Amino acid sequence: MTNSIDTCHFQDLAGKDPEDVCRRALCSYDSNKGCYTLSVWGEDYNIYRGESKIIRIRDGNSDINTFLGLFILYYLLTSKAIPISKEWISEKDIPGGVAFFRGPHAVPTHLIVKSYGNNIAGFSKRCEQLDGITLQMADQAYSFRIAPRIPVGVLLWEGDDEFPAESKILFDRTIVEHLALDIIFALTVEICTRVGVVAD
Hints:
- There is one protein chain.
- Helix content is 34%, strand content 24%.
- By secondary structure, it is of the alpha+beta class.
- It comes from Candidatus Desulfacyla euxinica.
- This is DUF3786 domain-containing protein.
């Protein structure tokens, strides 16, 4: 929930020049409302820097989980005005990633495997519900534009008698320019949780 996010992050955002933030993050700013509007995973969010809240415009709710809220704030704070590289990397290709993304910071792809390890059709249905675009990788894979400068790939290999099912998250190489390791981890939690929901 956004009310569990430290208000210092909103204060940091309040200290930024809105014109610069919009240029870097490819978002908009309403000076009358004092809020940014950012598209995240196909939905628009209003980020009120003075009121320390994030509102999902579709339903007016602020029930944004902490991981997603942190990603949104740090994307606005630290993203750079650079083009997407169109080169995929894993978390282990990120500088410091081998040491960081393990133990409590392991990418929680088990959430996807638990739901879809032996159900490629269900995985495809869920990814298409989330407006994923098919990638020619793994047994099935989809790309998602999480934020204007943050594309990710979600891959799934179906389990069989010899090998267990496996899922992997890939990032555009430029993610290292936009986000710190802990925020990338927060993003992976949101991705794996959202994709891991069993499709209706």
